[in-house]
Amino acid sequence: MEICNYHSIQTMGTLDGPGIRYVLFLQGCCFRCLFCHNPDTWYGKANSITTDEFVQDVLKYKVFYDASGGGVTVSGGEPLLQIPFLIEAFKKLKKYNIHTAIDTCGYIDITDHLKELMNYTNLVMLDIKHLDNKKHVELTGKPNNKVLKFLDFLQERNIPTRIRQVLTPGYTTDDEYIASLIKLLKNYKLEKVELLPYHDMAREKYKKLGLQYKLNSRPPEKQEVLKIKEKFINAGFDTI
Questions:
Q1: Would the pTM count as exceeding 0.90?
Q2: What are the backbone dihedrals phi and psi of residue 198, each rounded to the nearest 5 degrees, phi first?
Q3: Which end of the chain is least crowded, N or C, by CB within 10 Å?
């Protein structure tokens, strides 16, 4: 039986996929995003849970997930660092007809294990950090080649996909970047595009962890976000 290392659990999540969701935040991440609001998932002491314990906990709330069109989302950190656990857990969830989703940065090699996991995955929410490789390295510490290959893989496999883009002034809110993102995404069949305004509410968390908050940016203005959202809507995307 597989065991995962996890950071926390949210049983009534409404921001991580359709409907009301059980959200399992796994511990560990391959990125060090400057705007990360969960740096406590990078490392440190983790909780552990077996697949059976996880599924039995999910089933306590199944009536809410069924009624709302929700299900289970595994987030992080980076969930694809613990694929064996996800395969076993998602297989078991499917026996109860529970919708499964993964929120990932997509920095992953296309392996047989990943392909197997997709057989039991109803939705992938892929976080796009930046399309320019140099900027991507600046923001995350890693290149974006694997992320874009993963997006192609999802398209080839016909996996329902949402794109999540953090709107960070100085990086991903200017007209040129938004135009290039729209141009790229028009090549893919997507369920939705989620535009997530950057916020710096995690500054205190960084202090408590003894980490330096390195991003020198500001949260975008409401009108700035609405203008960007309008561009995606006019391009034909279902945008939230």
A1: yes
A2: -60, 140
A3: N
C-alpha count within 13 angstroms, C-beta hemisphere, residue 35: 23
Strand-by-strand arrangement of the 47-50 sheet: 47-50, 3-13, 21-26, 71-75, 99-104, 123-128, 161-167, 192-197
Under 8 Å between Cβ of 27 and 66: no
Rounded-to-10 torsion of CA 55, 61, 62, 63: 170
Contact 215, 200 (CB under 8 A): yes
What 93-99 contacts at long range (C-beta under 8 Å, 24+ apart), as own/partner pairs, is 93/55, 93/58, 93/120, 94/120, 96/55, 96/59, 96/62, 98/58, 98/62, 98/65, 98/71, 98/72, 99/17, 99/18, 99/19, 99/65, 99/69, 99/70, 99/71, 99/72, 99/123
User: Residues near 15 by Cβ (< 8 Å), separated by ≥ 6?
Assistant: none
